[in-house]
Amino acid sequence: MGTNKKKITKYVLSSTLLVNTVVGQAAVVFAADEKKPEIMQSTVKELFDKGIFTGDEKGNLNLEGKLTRIQVAAILSRALNLHVDTTVTTSFKDVSADSWGLKYIDALQKLGVMVGSDGKFRPNAVITKEELAVIFVRITQTSIVGKGTNLSVTDANEISGWAKPYVQAAIEAGLITTVNGKFSPKSEVTRQDIAVITDEFIKDSKFEKYKKSINNLLDEGKKISNSDPTV
User: Rounded to whole angstroms, how far apart are CA atoms 90 and 21?
Assistant: First the structure.
C-alpha cells in the first residue's frame, strides 16, 4: 500500500501531462481562469492525499482519461464523506456484487443523485458536461423551479431538454462555469476536469453545509429534494 502511494505521489509531482497540457483543452471546461501547471499539481496531490482521488494498481492517475459514471460516483462520495454501506447488494444488472464502486453507486442511488435507468447504471459510460451539471445540482439540492427556459449560453440549443433546468441552475449557482459564452454540454469529462471542479467544490464556503445535509438524508433513508419530480 505504501509503495503504491509513493508511486502515485511521484506521478503527480513529475507528470509531463500537467506541465504541458493543463492549460489546454481540459481544465478550462470548468474553470473560468486557467490553472497554472504548478497549481494543478498541488490540486491533484491534495485530492490524492485526502483519499478523494486515487490511481490504478500501477500508480497511474490517468488525468487525460475520460471520467466514467462509476468513477464520478466514487470521487464525489469520498469528497462528501458519504456514510456508505459496505455490505450492500447490487440492484443494477450491470453492476456486479463484487464491484469496487458498488458502495458509492448504492449511496448516490439511495439519495436520488445518480439513479440509472431500465435496471442499469452504465458504470463504464463516460460522463458528459450536462450530466455532471445534473449531479452537482442534485448534490447541492439547488432548486430547478422555473429553470431551463432562460439559458444565456450561445449553444443552448445543443443542451438536452431534460438537462436544461439543471444546466441553468448549475451556471447561475456557480457550480459549473462556461467558456467564452459556451457550455459545451456534450463534451466528455476527463479525470483532470473532475479534479478541478471537485477541488473548487470542497473549498466552497457552502461545502460543509452540503456535506452535512446530504449525509443526514442518507442516514435517514431520504432522497434529495430540489423540486425534481423524477427523483
Answer: 38
pLDDT digits (tens, 9 = 90+) for 93-137: 999 999 999 999 999 999 999 998 999 999 999 999 999 999 999
| pTM, entire model | 0.83
| DSSP classification of residue 103 | H
Cβ atoms of residues 110 and 83 within 8 Å: no
Rounded Cα gap, residues 75 and 82, in angstroms = 11
Asked whether the CA dihedral 110, 230, 167, 170 is positive or negative, the reply is negative
- Cα separations in angstroms, 19 against 23, 35, 54, 92, 110: 9, 11, 20, 40, 40
Report pLDDT digits (tens) over 40-95.
788 888 999 999 998 876 778 888 899 999 999 999 999 999 999 999 999 999 99
Neighbours of 204 (CB within 10 A): 14
- Encode pLDDT of 127-146 as tens digits: 999 999 999 999 999 999 99
Q: Is 118 left (phi over 0), alpha (psi -120 to 50) or beta?
A: left
Q: In the structure grid, which three cell numbers stand for residue 32, read together?
A: 473560468
CB atoms within 10 A of CB 16: 8
- With 50 as the cut, is the pLDDT of residue 24 above it? no
Integer Cα distance of 58 and 64 in angstroms: 16
Residues 6+ apart with CB under 8 A from 7: 55, 58, 59
- Rounded to 10°, the helix 69-79/191-202 angle is 20
